[in-house]
Design brief:
By secondary structure, this protein is an alpha/beta fold. The chain has 14 helices and 13 strands. Helix 2 packs antiparallel against helix 12.
């Protein structure tokens, strides 16, 4: 009898061990104290506490290179075939997905786990006459800045010139200047504070750290926060922004007297949707046998007020989407993939911010 009971106990132990997994969370960058690494490390720390309940844990894998595309390509080739691998994608990845070869990485083929629905802030030095004068903005060698650049152009040029792509390009080519040479966000912030740049863009946290005192003394201001993607065709204001700061759409209408419209604005909606709406996301293989446990652990994390207080304190207080909400959010963003938008996106990419690798990705229309 004792042998039978011992055998049953051993079988149960083996079954539990077989069910337990160590997941890998793949990052598109190197370890670091800021940006996506900081976000991923904090989320992973809280998620690990909840995964223990389901017999799992999660460890990082940092895969830097090609402005985040190396990680995307690796996941599309190998990671998606291993349900124990989850992948982080950031806003630059979102823009790259729309424009460039990312090795077959396709959000539509994977299951979203969680999204922190955030946005980017654009700051401007006081006294800049952006409707009439040249505006100096940091040059970028890759994706991540596209939504900011297009939005600034729209605000500079106004409804008449924004009515078609050619007149928008004439306006931005004439008055939007890109200043090269910045190897880090810190260098861009220093140049902006020194007046070498008229405008710049940062995460909310970096904006407040870099320019908060200047917002208060009036030497610079938060020009606009792009806005939180609402999944219904519009955006709403960022509650983290200083009082009175508006979304891009609100600033445009206040400045020009009409809501933004036209083919360039339509393309901007896709840029901003994927850059901000997918700025901080985690994905897993479709039909993963671990998806139920992962979803449950994420739900536990989001329902834990102490865990969320820690995340909000470190990452900003933004909406988190999981379960049916994150699927609906993703499905909305997928509806933005139209032939007209993709064609306009590529023209803007090549002509305005010189993305040499941009091409019309007809495969996204399947």
């Amino acid at each position: 009898m004792k042998k039978i009971l011992a055998a049953v106990a051993l079988t149960a132990t083996m079954a539990t061990a077989a069910a337990a997994e160590t997941f890998t969370l793949q990052y598109p960058n190197s370890p670091g104290k800021g940006g996506t690494a900081f976000w991923g490390d904090n989320v992973m720390a809280e998620l690990n506490k909840k995964l223990e309940k389901y017999g799992h844990n999660i460890v990082p894998r940092y895969l830097n290179g090609q402005r985040g595309k190396k990680s995307l390509k690796e996941y599309a080739t190998n990671g998606v075939n291993d349900p124990t691998v989850l992948v982080i994608a950031h806003g630059g990845n979102g823009e790259g997905f729309l424009l460039e070869d990312v090795g077959g990485f396709d959000y539509r083929k994977y299951d979203p786990v969680v999204v922190m629905n955030t946005n980017i802030w654009v700051s401007i030095n006081e006294g800049v006459d952006y409707k009439n004068e040249i505006v100096k903005f940091p040059a970028t060698g890759g994706t991540g800045f596209a939504a900011d650049i297009v939005a600034i152009g729209l605000l500079m040029c106004g409804p008449e010139l924004n009515a078609n792509v050619d007149t928008y390009l004439e306006c931005t080519n004439d008055r939007l200047r890109f200043i090269p040479g910045f190897k880090s966000g810190g260098q861009r912030r220093t140049a902006f504070n020194a007046g070498q740049l008229d405008a710049t863009r940062d995460t909310p946290q970096s904006s407040l750290m870099g320019y908060g005192d200047r917002y208060e003394d009036g030497t610079a201001r938060l020009w606009f926060a792009h806005g939180i993607v609402d999944g219904k065709g519009s955006v709403y204001g960022d509650a983290n922004a200083p009082a009175g700061v508006q979304s891009f759409n609100e600033v445009y209408e206040a400045e020009w007297g009409v809501a933004p419209s036209g083919p360039v604005y339509d393309a901007y909606r896709a840029f901003q949707g994927y850059r901000d709406g997918f700025q901080k996301t985690i994905w897993t293989a479709p039909n993963s046998p671990y998806k139920a446990d992962i979803d449950a652990a994420v739900a536990d994390m989001l329902a834990d007020p102490e865990a969320m207080a820690r995340l909000n304190d470190k990452l900003g207080e933004f909406p988190w989407l999981a379960g049916e909400e994150v699927q609906a959010h993703s499905d909305y963003l997928f509806t933005l993939l139209t032939k007209e938008r993709l064609e306009t996106l590529v023209v803007l990419a090549k002509e305005v911010f010189k993305y040499k690798d941009a091409y019309v990705k007809t495969e996204l229309l399947d």
